[in-house]
TrEMBL record:
SMART domains named in the record: acidPPc (SM00014)
Gene3D superfamilies, alphabetized: Phosphatidic acid phosphatase type 2/haloperoxidase
Annotated ranges, domain Phosphatidic acid phosphatase type 2/haloperoxidase: 92-205
Designated name of the protein: Undecaprenyl-diphosphatase
Species name: Allorhizobium borbori
Pfam families xref list: PAP2
């Protein structure tokens, strides 16, 4: 009789490998700068030229990734899992909540400090407009909060459920793109937000996995 095959670990090697070099993440840092140079002004020129169906769908879905709806949904998901004694699932819910909160905190500290003017006032300020510490809607463009929440949420879900990572990638990109379609963020804003979200989810996932939490070995 052949011996039963050993169970394969479900944790992704990226999360536990001691050879991972954090400096590799710096390769993504120039992406917002490149978007600023080559995409931001073009996105303003595209205003009123996007297909109506995309703009309408963006308006209907964009706010799904605001902090309160996201955290409320995750809290409900985690609460149900705890009620059913599904502790592994509840752990993933708590990890995802922590990822979103960490990313959101970083972004909402940066937004008023940077004070970047939104595309809504492009005619007045251009790409370089800033009003640091103003706090008004038109001057908290960078990074995008919606894109940050989407990046953290769907990156965390991709780490928890890697089988569906392509679906989560598409969703993250859509919610980020919706902010450009609605004319309230530049491409560099949403790319920066996605990176903050991804980075937060990755750091917490790696810390959890290396301690045997959330992600089984």
């Amino acid at each position: 009789m052949s011996e039963p095959k050993s169970r394969k670990p479900t944790v992704q090697p990226l999360l536990t490998s001691p050879r991972w070099n954090p400096l590799l993440g710096l390769a993504l840092v120039p992406l917002p700068a490149l978007a600023f140079l080559f995409l931001d002004e073009r996105s303003v020129r595209m205003e009123n030229h996007w297909p109506d169906v995309l703009v309408t769908f963006a308006a209907l879905t964009s706010d799904f990734v605001m902090l309160i709806p996201v955290m409320s949904t995750l809290a409900l998901f985690t609460g149900v899992a705890l009620t059913l004694h599904a502790m592994a699932t509840a752990g993933k819910g708590l990890y995802t909540m922590a990822s979103v909160m960490m990313a959101s905190g970083i972004t909402h500290v940066l937004k008023p400090l940077i004070g970047r003017a939104r595309p809504t006032v492009f005619a007045e300020h251009g790409l370089f407009g800033r009003k640091a510490l103003d706090g008004a809607f038109d001057y908290v463009s960078f990074p995008s909060g919606h894109a940050t929440h989407a990046g953290a949420l769907f990156a965390a879900l991709a780490f928890c459920f890697p089988k569906y990572r392509l679906v989560f990638l598409v969703l993250a990109l859509w919610f980020a793109m919706s902010r450009i379609l609605l004319g309230v963020h530049y491409p560099s804003d949403v790319i920066a937000g996605l990176l903050v979200g991804l980075g937060s989810a990755f750091v917490l996932a790696r810390l959890a996995a290396r301690r045997g939490l959330v992600f089984s070995r």
